[in-house]
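Format is chain and fold; as here:
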Amino acid sequence: MSTPKVRLSFVTQVCKDMERLSTFYANLFGLEHITELEGEYFRALRLGDTILGFNTTVAYDLLNLPSSDLDASPATFWTFETETEEEVDQLAAEAVDAGATYLKEPFRTYYGAWQAVLLDPEANVFRINKSASA
């Protein structure tokens, strides 16, 4: 049996204010909304081959998900890769200006990447990164 080829199609964040959060990421990274996928409870941004989704809490009922405390620390986080270390610095500063908070200002990781760790306006963790190998 051959190994199936898969790709990451959607990454979705359940959030309190999908409009605010999707606009934060759209503006920060220059992403466009995919209006044909959007509706009353969902916003979508294209990032390469992956769609970043933003669902209202209605997703819990629609998808039969267990309830969650949106004020709790998230169990996952997104990492956005840049082409230069300067872009990490620039985008991290722009994110803070747009309402994000630093957890760690840009720093060199133990594996050689240049990275900033932030909380978005709804306190979801995300990283802006320039890999040492990329």
The longest helix spans residues 85-97.
